[in-house]
Amino acid sequence: MNLALENAVPSRTGERVSALVVTAVPLLFLLVGLVIRYAAFLSISDETGWSPFVDALCKWDCFWYIGIAEGGYEPYPTPDGRNVGAWGFFPLYPTLVGLLAPLSPLRTIDFATLMSLAVSYCACLCAWPLLGRELRTYTLYCAFLLAGPFSVYHSTFLTEPLFVLLTILVLLALKRSNYIAAAGFAALLSATRIVGVFMVFPIVIQMFMDHRRAGGTLLSFPRHLLGRPDLLLAIFLAPVGLFAYMLFLHLLLGDGFAFAHVQRAFGRTMNWPFLFLWDGLVSFPREGWWPTAPQISAVTVLLGLGLSLWLFFGRRQYGVATFCLIAIILPIFSGLASTVRYITALSPLTLELSVLLSRWRVLAGITAAAFMIACYFTTRAWLEAHLALV
Amino acid sequence: MHWYEPANGWTPKRVAAYGAVALLALGELVIFGLAITPRVDPGYRAFYIDRTTTCRDMPVSGSYQLGETVSFFPHGAAEAKEIRVCGLSGPVADGTHSLGTSSRLRVGLPRNPGPLDLALEMRAVWNAPQGRQRVIVSVNGVPAGEAIVTSSGAARYTFAVPEEVMNAAPATLEILLEYPEAVLPGPLLSDLQSRAIKLYSFALLPEGSGEPILSGSNGLQTPIGPAQTD
After folding, report:
1. Which of A101, A125, A162, A180 has the fewest other C-beta atoms within 10 Å?
2. How far apart are alpha carbons B73 and B92 in whole angstroms?
């Protein structure tokens, strides 16, 4: 069992798994996931067919991404007089869709949906070596990503599919100590979502760990870095996506931090994360027993933090654990909104969860089944605009 | 030995790599420098960066017929749209609600309109502390008065447009309503979501020509009874 930063190990069972199986497993779950989500759609909709299905799945931020893909970013003042601009939504994924969709006969949302599924499928394939080439673990991970409770995020126009794929590619490159490749993917990651820029921490920590393994010390690390132009290049390359977007915003609006400043227009207010967390936990339902959206978000944060700490102390995956801790804590300085989506897109956590839950065959089977049953209900909740899933 | 090892000395590949590092570092430093010195208009800065206002200036025509009463209920939406700048939400069935800690209206003036009274019909939101809200009114940056608006019923409040404003022969009047006691609907929410009043109607009248339910000079006004629309 290993994650990205450990050396490659052979499969636990030692059995050879053919490339056909490795490619077929995620394809199977991709199709199963589609069927489950479509069934959930049919259960609450009078319409049938691909387009109504895809349109129904496109919610909340999806509309912003369609707007960026079709028309780019608006200047200031916004043409329709709104306080909110699309500047808070990072450009890489909508730009890719915006460039490629016109080459097809499809609508933007149709193309983006197919692209999200394809990107998520690729993410599964790339995760194979990170999961120790263990078929059971791999199967569970594919079930989670493509037919699991949060697979709805990977079947519409959101940045999660690309974020997950790029994170996995960074981990894969780090696993092979290929820092330039890791930094290149991290640069793309930092143009996909703001927290992607913090992937620079796992990169630097991995450099330090490699330095330690070679007999180096903390004191000799700066000198080691200065003597290695490839390492320096990786460090400065990793945040390039963010800086490129900041330059674009400066040229468009005169404000390179517009992606952060525009959060005010979304009604976000800054406060201590534990205050938001506590407020969420005690937001009891007024009637019934089902937890409220803030409670679900708060519990997800706690689970995410717990799993990150397990990665840090249990697995000694200091780099990715640091990345996950920052990626969880930083957004909740402005509230619990979207935390479920953010946390379930943190690949180091979901990869580790797959490792833990596939330890026993029975547990893995039950978990995979639970994922697919949950997929139906979370898709329904998403379609009915449950606020915990925003 | 790999190309990047220090033992290689200053090979062209290593020199190029250091050059790329220097370029990236410089580029990122410049972009960071640009980002921490934004070049934006004052309205953008006040709303997004300094957060000193919840009401962002927006271009509206200010089209308005002097003496006309503009309704802020749904049936007057078209007329109201021409003069409402920001800090207002709706209209809905019970008027247009203030949103944030201030609201702004903009009205165009004819030449030499003479002294004017500003008439606002409003009531406080239902959850206002002690059932009341303070509304501070200024016109073109000059204080015009203050009203105590209650949640028990709507009332019409009139304010004389300050003489010094009219002496400057303005083409437009920028009317600012500030709500120092605006209430947030819940904890840990942005001031953008605070509520204070429901605006029912607006009118700009030649001085003394209206029938203000609440009249007075630039002092504190208190309601004396519900308006007809209540």
Report:
1. A180
2. 6
A255 to chain B: closest CA residue: B38
DSSP-assigned letters across all residues of B37-104 = S----HHHIIIIIS---S-----------TTPEEE-SGGGHHHHHTTEEESEEEEETTEEEE-SSEEE
Contacts of A271 in chain B (CB under 8 A): 188
What is this structure's pTM?
0.88
Q: Which DSSP state fits A311?
A: I
For residue B4, which residues of chain A lie inside 8 Å, CB to CB? 228-231
Give residue A50's pLDDT band: very low, low, confident or very high (50, 70, 90). Answer: very high
The C-alpha atoms of residue A297 and residue A160 are separated, in whole angstroms, by: 17
User: Residue B19: phi, psi to the nearest 5?
Assistant: -60, -45
CA gap A386, B149 in Å, rounded: 37
Q: Does the beta-carbon distance from B38 to A230 stay under 8 Å?
A: no
CA atoms within 13 A on the CB side of B35: 20
Distance of CA B199 to the CA centre of its chain: 14
CB nearest B21 (choices: A236, A239, A256)? A236
Considering only CB atoms, which chain B residues are within 8 Å of A254? 38-40, 44
- For residue A360, CA distances in Å to A4, A126, B24 come to 22, 23, 48
Using left for φ > 0, alpha for ψ between -120 and 50, and beta otherwise, residue A72 falls in left
* B118 phi/psi in degrees, rounded to 5: -105, 125
Question: Are the CB atoms for A195 and A166 separated by under 8 Å?
Answer: no
* Per-residue pLDDT reduced to its tens digit, A318-333: 999 999 999 999 999 9
Alpha carbons B44 and A49: distance in angstroms, whole number: 44
